[in-house]
Amino acid sequence: MQRSQQQQQGQGSPPPSASSCKRPRTAMKPLPPAHLAALRGRYELVSVRGQGSFSEVWEARHLRTGLRVAIKILCHAKMRAAKLKPEREPRVMRLLSLGRHPHVARFYEAIRPAAAGDNQYTYIVMELAESGELHDHVAVRERLPEAEARRIFQQLAAAVAYCHRNRVAHRDLKMENVLLDAEGSVKIADFGFSKLWSPGKMQSRSLGSPEYAAPELLEGRSYRGPEVDVWSCGVILYAMLCGRYPFDGADMSDLARNIRRGEFRLPSWVSDDARDLISSMLIVRPEKRATLAEVTAHRWLQPDMPPHLAMPPPDATAAAARQGVNAATVELLVTRHGFERTSLLQSIRLDDGSEEAVAYQLVLSKQHDAATLYQLSMPPPPPPHGRHQWALDGGELVLRECPRETMRRVAKALGELGVRILFYHSHRHRHRMVCAHVRAAGGGGVPTAAIIHSFIRRHKDCGGSSSSSGAATATATDDDTAAVESLSAAAVFFEIQLLKAGEGNGNSNSQQHQYVLHLKRTSGPQIPYLRVCAQLASKLKSNPY
After folding, report:
1. How far, in Å, CA of 117 to CA of 61, rounded?
2. DSSP code of residue 103
3. How many angstroms separate the CA atoms of 282 and 268, rounded?
4. Is 251 annotated in the active site?
5. pLDDT greater than 60 at residue 4
6. What is the pTM of this model?
7. Rounded CA separation 522/455 (Å)
8. Which end of the chain is more exposed for a tag (fewer CB within 10 A), N or C?
9. What is the rounded CA–CA span in Å between residue 211 and residue 223?
10. CB distance 277 to 301 below 8 Å
11. pLDDT tens column, 205-247
């Protein structure tokens, strides 16, 4: 993709300085009686975290468990005056929270007390992001190093891709709506302008902040939704790397004119790959603008990409159906917080928004990190002959090259990753490897050889009868029991098969020069396996031929 008009030097509109933009936590102020009545017995408001045109956000404490949350208080009168629907944000957040994405702020419940007239509020209880806004984080440091900006943008792009996978366009992405938790991880929030979209339906309303607005919004043209989020992501990445916005203007009309032109400059310290990515997102014509799939696959984002973010985002509703009840969390709620077990289990299964269901989600989030919960809701591996470009944990890579050359490159890449090839066999169009990745020191003090030998004895078919599998006939060590016990923590075993595309479905004649590389985990923990898959995919994609 060609770059937009850009120069080596130059600067756009600077964001506010650190001193002017830093918004410390506001001191406790008198609470309106309506808020006290709505939250009595459930939450204690602690302090104001932020204020907007239609709402304010408080830090609060969940009284039954003592856990900290954020409560966004929406004023219905102000929202209706701006022709916004108060019920939209909690509805969208509830949908997105079903999939437990680690970089979308978790939704816990929405409280809508009955009120007369215009004195009506909705209280959205959600995950607390202790470190505040990305805007303040960047302003204090003026700009971010590329490594840190890459980590943040990996999380942001994955979260936006998850929203788009579930037909949600945010439409107000900006650094003020990208929050950071205590560990510095991204949490997308503020879905007040969001919209459920469909491929054939166009939107026309102009929303969001002018500095982040796509040209089609400023021109009043119709749009679907995802493409305006891509533009906003490009502005955010530019601001992180450059410490200023890409477009400047003496007033709003001048700013809008410069955005519609799409002309911006990048400082000399921005790397070539980062330039290419930013330029692919800040393209005036939305049909030529990069999609989120192209953004997340861009080479600048690949170094140190977490495996769970490299996986295709799941459907939120389907992900929720795969989630079981966590027994440890239930036990804690019963023994420590006094919940009745039968009622608790029923509420969890119904996800009815009751006090029990909310407490379960709060404690579950506290007990397990967000990435782990997200991976537990991931879909099963796709069918082995699907036509995916790349999908981890049973994923595939479609290739057009000599199969033996492909396996040679795979073997080389595996060697660079420290993966051992235990067995290799080829027959006609089928090529098969059995591989092992063991931590340098084995596990629990057990030698690596013992772990591998133990696996081979437990999987007699891994080498078949082929004499090429020398490891299959190795003599067992006396540490077999210990090796078996350490296997799940120390080693990952997986198979790689290269098959002719179309085998088994009658399409081989039309795809005679295509081959599918298929991976399957045989034994061992999932997360290290996903890490190896992501690293292997990155190596093969960066050197495709």
Report:
1. 29
2. T
3. 18
4. no
5. no
6. 0.69
7. 10
8. C
9. 18
10. yes
11. 777 789 999 999 988 888 888 999 999 999 999 999 999 999 9
Does residue 441 or residue 453 have the better pLDDT? 453
- The strand pair at 430-438 and 68-75 is best described as unpaired
Tokens 């179309």 belong to which residue?
502
DSSP H helices in 166-225:
215-218
pLDDT at residue 190 above 70?
yes
Number of H helices, E strands in the chain: 21, 15
Pairing assessment for the beta strands 132-133 and 420-427 based on DSSP bridges: unpaired
Q: Which residue is listed with tokens 């080829």?
A: 426
Q: How many residues comprise the chain? A: 545
Q: Is the pLDDT of residue 21 over 70?
A: no
Q: Which of 136, 172, 181, 229 is catalytic?
A: 172
Structure-token pair, residue 314: 């799941």
Any bridge partners for residue 434, and if so which? 423, 495
- How far are the Cα atoms of 128, 149, 159 from residue 185, in angstroms, in the given order? 12, 12, 11
DSSP string for residues in 271-316? -HHHHHHHHHHS-SSTTTSPPHHHHHTSGGG-TT--HHHHSPPPPH
Cα–Cα nearest to 388, from 516, 535, 539, 499: 516
Supply 376's token pair: 């537990």
CA distance 38 to 75: 13
Check pLDDT > 50 for residue 19: no
Record the tokens describing residue 230, joined without a space: 């891509």
Q: 175 falls in which pLDDT band (50, 70, 90)?
A: very high
Determine if residue 318 is left, alpha or beta; phi over 0 gives left, psi from -120 to 50 gives alpha, anything else beta.
alpha
Nearest to 364 by CA among 155, 71, 127, 123: 127
Q: Which residue has the tokens 């929405």?
A: 110
- Residue 194 confidence (pLDDT) above 50: yes
**Token digits for 191?**
């879905």
